[in-house]
């Protein structure tokens, strides 16, 4: 089970930064707002405070009894490749980690806020726990199949490892789209424009629609953001 947990962390930490979850419309009537490419301050502290506050609010509203005390930190390793990911510390507190090269790769506060909101959404949607369950189920099924076909202990162990990977990745694309949808809402409510933020994908290599790939095609992700933004009253 420790191996399964490690595989889950590796799968989720690769986040660069089924159908998506239903769009949540705002409670009040929203007047459509035109998208203006305003120069948002590229200040990590300013953005993290705004997004962190909104992420905590959304987390408390959408979960029951979960830890919503987000920490947003910068990886001290200056050589670490561009990456942003959500994890949990030893006390179960959600932590969003940005590498310095990831921060440098964003062009404005909207892009930084969008990536930050996306990572916060992973925790709110319970993706680590859900992915862990999928990995455990995959390991059990593959291990049982290996045993039924006469596999020895080594073959069963190898099958369990493969099953954990397959299980963890089975719904990873759906998880990314769910995080994009809720991340759009968090970004908007934090005072940033997700339709500007989503342009970050213009510079991210498109993973395509690979079988058991960890991320969906960029076009599909942009579509989810655009649909959610329309529900919030944002227009191109």
Automatic annotation (TrEMBL):
Record's signal peptide: 1-20
Family designation: Belongs to the peptidase M48 family.
Cofactor: Zn(2+)
GO cellular component: membrane
Occurrences of domain Peptidase M48 (ranges): 80-227
InterPro entries attached to this UniProt entry: Mito/Outer_Membr_Metalloprot, Peptidase_M48
Superkingdom of the source species: Bacteria
Name of this protein: Peptidase M48
Gene3D superfamilies: Metalloproteases ('zincins'), catalytic domain
Keyword S-adenosyl-L-methionine: no
Keywords assigned: Hydrolase, Metal-binding, Metalloprotease, Protease, Signal, Zinc
Molecular-function GO term, any one: metal ion binding
